[in-house]
Hints:
The complex is a heterodimer.
Chain A: H1 12-43, E1 55-57, H2 59-66, E2 74-79, H3 84-100, E3 106-111, H4 121-129, E4 135-138, H5 144-150, E5 157-158, E6 160-164, E7 170-175, H6 180-191
Parallel strand pairs in A: 1-4, 2-3, 3-4
Antiparallel strand pairs in A: 2-6, 6-7
Helix pairs in contact in A: 2-5, 3-6
Chain B: H1 2-21, E1 43-45, E2 51-53, H2 54-57, E3 62-67, H3 73-77, H4 79-90, E4 94-100, H5 107-116, E5 123-125, H6 130-135, E6 139-140, E7 142-147, E8 152-156, H7 171-180, E9 189-190, E10 194-196
Amino acid sequence: MTHSAKPIQLPFVFRSAAVLVSILLLTFSAAAQGKSAHKSRRSSAAKTPAPAPVRAVNAEEMQALLRRDGKRPLLVNYWATWCDPCRDEFPDLVKIDRDYRAKGLDFIAITLDDLSDINTAVPRFLLTMNAKMPVYLLNVADPEPAINMVDSNWSGALPATFLYDSSGKVVYKHFGRVNPGELRAAIEKLVGTKQ
Amino acid sequence: MKKLAAISLLITLLAVALLVNARTPVADIPAPPIIGATIADFTLPDAGGASHTLASLRGSKGTVLIFIATQCPVSNGYNERMEKLAQDFKARGINVIGINANSTESAADVKDHAAKNNLTFTILKDNGNKVADQLGATRTPEAYFLDASNKLLYHGRIDNSRDITQVNSSELRDALEAALAGKPVAKATANAFGCSIKRGGE
């Protein structure tokens, strides 16, 4: 991934001050957001429908989920509730789902949690995230065929994110926590321009 | 006018701060060595700070390097299995070495974790993920089995499931047994889901 725009070089003092100011502002805004999210969750708990139940799929069923019919691009995120960077990036993914679903992006999240967590830890997490995308739990005795089917260069490290165009070709992939700006730019290329 | 200048300065500062703070994407992790490649010697400290080389730690019949974590539930699911592997093969000439390359886990964390989980094999702290890069490691747990001359014979998962009751293929153990029996390793790579290694830049 290349960055064409070079950051402006400022004297160190300015940079440090800027970083400090930004950290302070980000901290405050994050705290405020957290507060308001908490509030709204409480007040609208009765009205907000629970996310759709998480469905367990085997490798073949997962493969069918990834198939494209030439109409809509697809974003797939592999995650688990036990995976720290997965949890960290999830709010960004929920926002991306909210921003791009109406513009034509499909998004599914596939969890590698244990089957025993399918009605407990997984939906609980999705509820706190206010996640609306369909979520599936990959339930396989041997994970290797599924990993290789998705990408032969993937070790199985979580999280992993893949963006397919409407023909099913991978146009963007990222192992580890996503960079939301980079992912959004890749999505924009697929949904931003109407042919 | 002064106010306007102050505001525009603030906005500029913010924009610059965002640019400076923006995490550059993780540089592509080097590809792992191919099976059969010879792994070059390396030097890393253990959790107590003592320095070790691969040459000083390797077994007479081979060496298993396993990237592990203190926080990852998948890696932790394998603590007992890794310790048993180390015990089972020590007398047979194969040494098991743990490597912690997570920038988020300190040498002190590694030491505490090993003590709490009765891990007796040597665990190295790969600061700056130098060896993780050398081996193209991305996940915990992720194992590499080297023969007596440091040639890579197996790379991948320990077995098929972090839930010990679901294990039905133990590729790492099979590779060790094959090598000790002088046979080729039937399955030289196998993957499983695990935690991403948290490299320094992330």
